[in-house]
Amino acid sequence: MDLLKQKVLIVDDEASIQELIRFNLEQAGFETDVASDGIAALEKFESYRPDLIVLDLMLPGKDGYDVCKEIRRSSNVPIIMLTAKETELERVLGLELGADDYITKPFSPLELVARIKAVLRRASGQETHDENEFKVGNIFLQVDTREVKVQDQSIELTRKEFDLLLIFMQNIGKVLTREILLQKVWGYEYEGETRTVDVHIRHLRRKLGPEGETRIETIHGVGYKLRGN
Fold first, then answer.
1. E-only strand ranges, 65-104
2. Cβ atoms within 10 Å, residue 167
3. Residue 112 buriedness (CB in 10 A; 0-12 / 13-18 / 19+)
4. Domain 7-123 belongs to what topology?
5. Which of 1, 12, 19, 66 has the fewest Cβ atoms nearer than 10 Å?
6. Residue 40 pLDDT
């Protein structure tokens, strides 16, 4: 075990969600463990001592609200709540109970990883700007609001277009193969064709205008890269 790796406890009763989060977090350099119900989550919290918890609200045994309340009695470990519920009241309740952030299903694994990094940096007292906001040329991207602006004008992107732009912003100047983009944006179990990436990037370039056409470069036979300043 790498003692320098930050540990994330993933609490969700759906095995597919556990594996999706676990795969993406371990690819991002985190150590992970999982729990499938509220009681197991509390036991794992005591034995595993995670640096952050991704906590689903709808759990058997004890729900996520109760788990969060119990953990907050003894610890300020960062908690990101994960749920299919989307109402303002439920989001506010989760935050009032002590959650540090809140993300709804279906979610982008890239966005979740970015939020985890931002919450951990905030918890450690470090600046969060680099994890939440990205800028190259006249393109500005903010992770938590999923906002994209070009020359100070907001543009509307689909979820996949946003996720593609985010991974480019996180890897400015690096060549990303179509296979890597499929894995990061569509998920590790995606079995579609790589030309799906080409279609989405074509749409992304068009929406970004001249900035997209000149900055998202095609590396023939390999993939794409976002050109920096």
1. 79-83, 101-104
2. 18
3. buried
4. Rossmann fold (3.40.50)
5. 1
6. 96
> What does the DSSP 8-state code read for residue 99?
-
First-last CA distance in the chain: 39
Q: How many residues does the chain have?
A: 229
DSSP 186: I
Cα–Cα distance between 224 and 168 in angstroms, integer?
9
By DSSP bridging, strand 216-219 and strand 153-155 are unpaired
Q: Is the pTM of this model over 0.90?
A: no
Instruction: Give CA–CA dist 115/25, Å, rounded.
Output: 11
Q: What is the largest CA-CA distance in the chain?
A: 56
Tokens representing residue 182 in the block? 């499929």
Omega before 106 within 30 of 0, i.e. cis: yes
Listed by start position, the domains of the chain span 7-123, 130-226
Which CATH number applies to 130-226: 3.10.290.10, 1.10.10.10, 3.30.1490.20, 3.10.20.70? 1.10.10.10
Structure tokens that stand for 151 in this block:
């020359």
User: DSSP label at 6?
Assistant: P
Mind listing the pLDDT tens digit for each residue in 48-70? 999 999 999 889 989 999 999 99
Residue 166 in tokens? 């985010």
Q: Please give the radius of gyration of the chain, using alpha carbons only, rounded to the nearest integer.
A: 18
pLDDT in tens, 100-121: 888 888 888 888 998 898 888 7
